[in-house]
Amino acid sequence: MLVFAVSDKGGTGRSVTSSNIVYRTALNGRDVCYLDFDFGSPTAGTVFQIEKLVTGLPGTGLHSYLQGRTDNPFSVDVWAESEGDTLRRQPPGSGRLELYPGDRDGGEFSTSDDTVDRCADLFLSLEEQFDVVLVDLSAGRSYAVETVLAATAAQQLQHVTYRWLVFHRWTHQHIRAAHNLVFGDRGILSAGKAQDHDESELRRSIRFIRTAVVQPSSASLSGLRPEQLAWLENCNNSLQTLAGRLGLGRTSLLGSVPLEPLLQFREQLISDYDVRQRRTANQETIDAFKDLAAKLHDDRAWEAL
Ligand SMILES: Nc1ncnc2c1ncn2[C@@H]1O[C@H](COP(=O)(O)OP(=O)(O)OP(=O)(O)O)[C@@H](O)[C@H]1O
Ligand SMILES: [Mg+2]
Description:
Layout: E1 2-6, H1 14-27, E2 32-37, H2 44-47, H3 62-66, E3 76-77, H4 78-81, E4 97-100, H5 113-129, E5 132-137, H6 143-152, E6 162-169, H7 172-183, H8 188-194, H9 199-204, E7 206-213, H10 226-245, E8 253-258, H11 261-265, H12 272-276, H13 283-296
Parallel strand pairs: 1-5, 1-6, 2-4, 2-5, 6-7, 7-8
Antiparallel strand pairs: 3-4
Helix pairs in contact: 1-13, 5-6
């Protein structure tokens, strides 16, 4: 399965949430890989705690592969190379967890037929080796989005299952932006149609994920004044109405991740150890990641709307 992680805005939690989804999927025993297609800002090494990749890779990363400078993009085994103390050893029963970084100092580059062919070849080959291939795309209507829409329309990928995860924060601005990214004039649906995708099939492959959501009923808000709580409740209701009206409501929602204090200070994978022994992260956060990981493979979550 190919999974594309997108957002209209930057800083939505797309990379951190999708990294935690692939981590949970690997812990469940599936083989997964994470491709850093955020070409303008290759930083995936941070979340997986691999110091030498924090700003990308000198030479043979995904930029070099897609632009034809190498035929074998470099990948690392996260279980073997991560400096994170709870990631360093592969837990018994878990699957492979590999990271394909971008190039250090790599920037956005425009799409060519050759780039699309190389991208389709890579997806095909990785899809045969891994249960989930998660592709973290640049924010907005980027060349990266254009490239993968063209690649997934290619003949050789016709039989491959692909899914789109659209990340957004729980605010008016983010809800409108996520709506435009999918349904707008130059959005994923219209760009996909221009690449010969079947619009209804593409639509069925798209679900939204709300990140860093504060629930007005959350215990963490117990110190707020009644006026603040009432105001939050009102805002939340108006966001629910807006999301429903713009096609981001309950039926197209894959899930929500609560605001996690630890993630506000550091981009990282959250392990069970962080929650149970260190007690530095909340159980609700990993429950949300587990739920999203499970829903990736739950066809009922992807039934026609
Ligand atoms: N559930 C959450 N609660 C609190 N903070 C979060 C949550 N999810 C992500 N964050 C934090 O929000 C910031 C942005 O997250 P992240 O880098 O994943 O976003 P992004 O959409 O990939 O951004 P970019 O467009 O820059 O690549 C990070 O500091 C991250 O740790
Ligand atoms: Mg990111």
